Amino acid sequence: MKPKKLSICAFALFGMVLIPFSSCEKDDDKNDPVLSTTQVSDITQTTASSGGNITDDGGATVTTRGVCWSTSQTPTINDSRTEDGAGTGSFTSSLVGLEHSTSYYVRAYATNEAGTAYGEEHVFTTDALPLWEITNFTHDNGLPGNRVASIAVDKNNNIWVGTNAGLARFDGLSWTSFTTADGLAGDAIMALDFDPDGNLWIGTWENGVSRFDGQTWTNYTEDDGLFNNRVYCIYADHKGNIWIGTRNNTITVFDGTSFDSFAVNPQVNPDGNIVGHIHAIHADHDDNVWVGSCYTGLSLFDGENWTHRVNNLHSFINVIYCTSGGDIWLGQSPLGAFRHSNGNWENYPESETMIKFVYAVSEDAHGNVWIGGRDGVSVFQDNTWEFISEEDGMINTAVNALAVDNEGNMWVGGPNGLSRVFKL
Question: Which domain holds residue 80?
């Protein structure tokens, strides 16, 4: 009987050894999953999209899958990660909580009973914060017309905009329009400026000039002494004189009582007519009056004498602006922008500014100079130029007018409407 018991015990011991051995053989059949990582897409400042595709579960069910990411290479599930279901096949993952302007490494992962496997690594960079906060306005928002030729800002920070279909005022909340039905001389507006008393002077394309004191409209035409009803520019000096640029290279000056007209550096055609138009008038800090023509270039009046073809510029002066520091900026076609500072001239051509034909110049609250033209807007800051385009949110590729308001916003007008631009 004893040998029989020993045989049974031996068999039992053999079975105990065999069971775990057989179990180990079964575990050896389970492998890590096989997967790939989806290319990163839909990248923003703080989010992105990726995912993966599990082509082999390794012989065991995939219980967790997703992507993991880090600012260091070879991210693991101990870093930031998503959990996007279970099983094989493709899946999509949303990466959130990212930092702007930052490079990240991302890998898909899959976990089964055998362990965690990873797909190949991809790297991406989140978008930078926008440099500009831009709000656009068109006829749909309250402008009487989309073609903006001039902008002015009053002491109460109302924005006045001259369009092809009337005058608009923006009080920060809503728009109010003014047309010939309200007393305006003409609806096609070319120029705006405020005199020292706060009256708004408005130059129209074919109907002369209007003055608006906030309540009453007063209109002036050729019958009142204006040289020509087509007005290209208006400038109100600190003495209250209104300088009006018109056809035939002629300026009309209104001193509040009477009109005086004279041609600037007149050049006569064979038919006897004076060629050119006055497109720009502006005084500097010494009360010198700078005048720009589309034909005879740049002229300077010191109060007694005229100097013509200043800096040998002989045609297409579109705009003149005097900065708070006393520099004179002007826009020319096709040579770009010019600055007169401390007796010296410097040209900023298209290769620097991205703008060949400059139609508008202004200065922001920080002393940076903005120029606008046929190709967009550029900002001159710390002796470098920064170009702003449609990619930044601008509604216009061409710019006709610039003006800064009392809150530091730059208003930019062109053929497609108006933009309010603030640097973040």
Answer: 34-125
Out of 66, 98, 125, a domain closes at 125
Q: Nearest-5° angle of CA 254, CA 147, CA 232?
A: 25
Residue 337 and residue 381 in one domain = yes
Pairwise CA distance, residues 79 & 67, whole Å: 10
Closest C-alpha among 223, 213, 272, 220 to residue 244:
220
How many CA atoms within 13 Å lie on the side-chain side of 230? 8
Residue 270 inside a domain? The answer is: yes
Q: Are residues 222 and 371 in the same domain?
A: yes
Q: From CA 324, how far away is CA 92, in angstroms rounded?
A: 56
CATH at residue 66: 2.60.40.10
Whether residue 222 lies inside any domain: the answer is yes
Nearest-angstrom CA–CA distance, 281 and 293: 9
Q: Are residues 261 and 291 in the same domain?
A: yes
| Same domain as 118, residue 162 | no
Q: Are strands 103-112 and 64-70 parallel, antiparallel or unpaired?
A: antiparallel
Indicate if 77 and 196 belong to the same structural domain. no
The reply to whether 118 and 230 lie within a common domain is no
pTM score, whole prediction: 0.77
Report d(CA 350, CA 334) in Å as an integer. 9
Number of domains in the chain: 2
Residue 182 has what DSSP assignment? G
Residues 89 and 237 in one domain: no
Tokens 């602006």 correspond to 321
Per-block average pLDDT, block size 10, for the chain (424 residues)? 42 42 53 97 95 97 98 98 98 96 97 97 91 94 97 98 98 97 98 98 98 97 98 97 97 97 93 92 97 95 95 92 97 96 96 96 96 95 91 92 96 98 87
Cα–Cα nearest to 377, from 364, 396, 363 = 396
CB atoms under 10 Å from CB of 392, counted, come to 17
Element (H, E) at 132: strand 132-137
CA 166/CA 131 separation, integer angstroms: 33
DSSP state of 126: P
Ramachandran class of 113: left when φ > 0, alpha when ψ lies in -120 to 50, beta otherwise: alpha
Whether 244 and 376 map to the same domain: the answer is yes
The length of the chain is 424
Q: How far is Cα 270 from Cα 274, in angstroms, rounded to an integer?
A: 9
C-alpha span between 129 and 16 (Å, rounded): 67
